[in-house]
């Protein structure tokens, strides 16, 4: 899937996404869907690695391999045993959760939280003032800007233009993708704070937790751990060091919807807000992220980051769940993907 234009971050520039659609059929003929799409520059595994992990799984008899998968815990254990990389586990786990939700007759979000609302707000990534203004006019209330790609002066000028264009009401969220050294991050955020910023995602390297904690202690802007939180162990380390106010969870990079849900609950219990985002996934991955975002109680989360399909020049399926800065999920059992599959 190629991008409509290069997607620039401090970690590099992306021009296309490659991924696998995972399709699991149970003994009764029901189908569950998942997606495995490693993100270059952010995932440890490559697309080829993920693809190799699924070799031979299609020949595995359903009754023998999956007959006892009647709970989230059993699905998680099976996926950990069968595939090792986070994106591969995500693909298989999402497909099996889709099947379990269909079996129970509930939308996927309500497999995790029976009170899930099936809707929520989502931020939109903008590059310039005109992008941001178009988003706000479309009803979007949270704008996300990448910073740290070039000089701070360029970021300040661009941010000033965006704030002038959209006014004081919309929320602006920044993402540095670990671009800055600790002292630079502190100095940069002091200047950026003049523009009323919601949070800064990953201002320093993911491995620099002490620096992240120092930035949090000194910054007027709330600090979100993103690349620093890819597992439950990572989250515990961030919490123990009091290194963030917010965590950003990407189910594709965390190892699946069950892993992401568990981390979201742990983060909320520790007093951290949660942002669920896609990792520039295809339609199935984005839809799974929406279900996890919907499952999290409103008091524990900020606007999600799942409106990323607009960066793709083409997708395998038409996903129309997002309009005017909000996502709305189907009330049908499971992921709800089969409804959209039939409307290609």
UniProtKB/TrEMBL annotation:
It comes from the Bacteria. The active site is at 146 (proton donor), 250 (proton acceptor). It catalyses: (1R,6R)-6-hydroxy-2-succinyl-cyclohexa-2,4-diene-1-carboxylate = 2-succinylbenzoate + H2O. Its cofactor is a divalent metal cation. GO terms for molecular function: magnesium ion binding; O-succinylbenzoate synthase activity. Belongs to the mandelate racemase/muconate lactonizing enzyme family. MenC type 1 subfamily. Converts 2-succinyl-6-hydroxy-2,4-cyclohexadiene-1-carboxylate (SHCHC) to 2-succinylbenzoate (OSB). This is o-succinylbenzoate synthase. It comes from uncultured myxobacterium HF0200_05J13. The keyword Ribosomal protein does not apply. Keywords: Lyase, Magnesium, Menaquinone biosynthesis, Metal-binding.
